[in-house]
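Weekly puzzle thread! Below is a chain. First person to post its structure in token form gets bragging rights.
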Amino acid sequence: MNPLKTQIRLLYQIGIAAASIALLSACASMPHLKQPALQESPPPQTSVPPGTLLASQAGRLAARGLYLGAAKNYVQAAAQSQGSEQLHYLLKAAQSSLKGHRPQVAILLSGEILRLSHESSLRGNALWVQAQGYLDQGKTAMAKGSLEELLTISSVTPAVRAQAMGYLSTIYLQENHDLTALDFLVRRDGLLDGAEKAANRQQIHSLLNKQPEAKLKNWQGRSGNPLVQEWLAFELIARQHANPAGQQAAFQTWLAQHPGHPEIRFSSDTAKISPLQSARGDICILLPDSGKFGPLSHAFEAGLETGAQIQAGPPAYLLPGTGNPSFTAALYEKGIRAGCMAFVGPSLTQDINAVLGVRRPGEPPMLTLGAYPTRLPKGVYRFLPDRRAAAEQIAVQAYAARYRQTAVIYPQNSSGANIQARFITSWKKLGGKITGVDNFNPYGNIQTGTIRKIVSSLPRKNSFIFLVASGKELSPILKVIRSTRANVPIFLPAPLDRTGALPSVHSRTPRLYAIDMPWLIPAADPDPQAVRLLQGSLPDPDTAQWRVAGYGLDAYTLITRILAHQTRNPVSGPSGTLRWGQDGKIVQEMPWVQIESGRIQLLRGPPAPGS
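Winning reply:
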């Protein structure tokens, strides 16, 4: 059999995360690009090229948000193609892997493109994917190399060039190379306009304002960038002339004495990132206000505001971000100047890195909402409000209950992939065994063959099925499992909808268990006042928004406890029991429930094996 086709078959069996090793060996066997030999009469093409259909299918999957499935198809399309088309499909696979939250795979794929191609446009796109993958993993030193090489390629678009410079300025600020960071901020200024330009200039002002006068004068002699020198000179002039008219006259005098310096209009650059007048004493929220994260951010904000109403505590105020790290860092500094007493957020790793890069010891406490690769500084806490916490809890508590073997079934989308990855990592770390893994298309027909195979091969003793499913796909998968093994325990992480019901489960489904937020479990008696207030703020939320709003309620309690220096006793709230762990980590524990014939009954923990 063709070894490349063998790799593709392996790709389907083990999924895109594990397929990176197979992919590298496949790519290594791909020929380097060569000019095709001239032919006197090339044969007519009467059929569609082999990779075209696969690439079209990949495009449709990507349009539906199924990025990991799209990445698989693009890799297979690359395996069946040649020349520049082959590398084009690999690039598509890398981009899809990045969108599917598989940065490691995206890095490996883009690295193969860089190894095989010398074409500038393709290399630029590959470097951009590689840099973003490194940033997602918190590997800023590696990202810096990719971004700096990216800027040497002339075909890179101004928009990407500006974003790359923004990332580099943040990285250099974190490394305490402030002059280099200033150089990148000034260089990107000419690539921006509107609100983005105003935000960038605000960040330049913020960086300059923090420097003593002696350092600014030292920088004047070190910088070879005329625009940087002009910013430095104008900052010094502004400090020496408090009167606006005197400033303007001094600016014009300096420009006359230094011909060739394009005017930066320092004195008229008064645009701020929407001034904050009422934040003194507020709890400020650092979350994206627009884009795909916007609806969830507003739901989280509604939860915080509801918490403030119920507890009659400090108000919550959203500092609307964009997900750009340098912009988020500027927003944080604006909040400090405006008098925010505490911060909730950011949630994206790159934003957390950027904010902690400018945060000083002793500044107000912060409750971050995302992963951070190293130890958090004093006064910073971590609360991870997502369904992956349920997956980790199932692994820990199932192993403690003496389960040892499991099969994993999850949907082919980024959410399902992230949840099962967290479970598998935790389960294997404890010493548990995985006997089979399968994924399914949540938008199409369930392929029953592989599911039956892994269920039937699961040992009957001390074993269970870890199933990631909810809504309409839950019932057909349960039918397949039950028809194969009637009494195997099934554990689901956070499957409930916002009504706390499972409408698709009508038949008797013995040994079906789940853990979820008390907020979504009717038997747990969610706070009726909080429910009523939130229904007014969120008139028609989907399940994800309602879930995030519950996390917002708990985040408010956590940050007020932090402000009151009460970080010992557990917090019981909508998302479960929250305990103060080591290094500022908040540990979440949710209740177990048994689900049968659509009814939900609270349990004290997972059922014992064989019970």
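Puzzle host: Confirmed. Bonus trivia for everyone else. DSSP finds 22 helices and 15 strands in the chain.
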